[in-house]
Design goal:
By secondary structure, the chain is mainly α. The chain is built from eight helices and no strands. The N and C termini lie far apart (139 Å).
């Protein structure tokens, strides 16, 4: 009896199974190749974008530098020398006026709606009050007169003031204009139209001093002081026949 041969090989794998194995290996290798190619393309693309962005930024820097070298861009603001800056006198004047305002609590509020009444002559008591107010504020008025000699008014020459400090300067400037109004009223009542015209010029000088500050708030304060100056012109013309020199002075201040 013949025994089966144990060394006989296993039946061959079917052709279909071999095809699937071959196809699977090919697809896996192809997928890895495609992924490597995509990664390479991505790296090249990112590198190209970074290079282009760097070149663009460098071109902008070069253009700005060229413009600066040509003087085509405005220079940084320079500090105004103290001897050329009239703002220091106006700040001193405002401080002196405000100090005077604290001396008498029973004085009328400067610039209040009901005092002084427009176009109405003041009585003896009101004139006496004005005399006292002007006398106690004489140092402030003297500082304002010294500011007339200046054309430049820079309240922040070092560019180091904060927002609230700038607001304080604007408030003080408006307060100073009101105190100059007090002096104008007294001069008008004392029948000194030429000096009253000078006082109007001082009010408008305070407005002019704010025009270097280009903020909206400064512009509004400037306009309010100019409006006060115009009202003083109208009040003066309603009270007096001004000499030609005084009219010329007011016209110059209003231009």
């Amino acid at each position: 009896r013949t025994m089966p041969d144990s060394t006989t090989s296993a039946p061959p794998v079917s052709r279909r199974r071999s095809f699937f194995r071959f196809t699977g290996r090919w697809l896996w290798r192809g997928t890895k190749t495609v992924a490597l190619l995509l990664l390479l393309v991505l790296l090249v693309g990112v590198g190209w974008i970074i290079w282009v962005n760097h070149q663009g930024q460098q071109a902008i820097k070069d253009a700005v530098r060229e413009k600066v070298d040509e003087g085509g861009l405005p220079s940084e603001p320079e500090a105004v020398p103290a001897e050329q800056n009239g703002a220091r006198y106006l700040r001193a004047a405002a401080a002196l006026m405000i100090e005077s305002d604290t001396l008498r609590a029973d004085w009328p509020v400067v610039g209040s709606a009901d005092w002084p009444e427009f176009g109405v002559s003041l009585d003896a008591d009101q004139i006496d009050t004005l005399v006292q107010m002007v006398e106690l504020s004489r140092d402030g008025y003297a500082a304002t007169e010294q500011a007339r000699a200046y054309d430049v008014f820079d309240f922040d020459p070092q560019r180091d003031l904060g927002y609230y400090e700038e607001l304080k300067i604007l408030g003080d400037s408006r307060r100073l204009a009101r105190w100059l109004q007090i002096r104008h009223l007294l001069l008008a009542e004392q029948n000194e139209p030429a000096a009253a015209a000078e006082a109007i010029g001082d009010v408008l000088l305070v407005a002019e001093s704010l025009r270097q500050n280009e903020t909206l708030v400064a512009g509004l304060v400037d306009l309010s002081i100019v409006a006060l100056g115009y009202s003083l012109v109208e009040d003066t013309l309603s009270r007096h026949q001004l000499p030609d020199a005084a009219l010329a002075r007011m016209q110059q201040a209003l231009l």
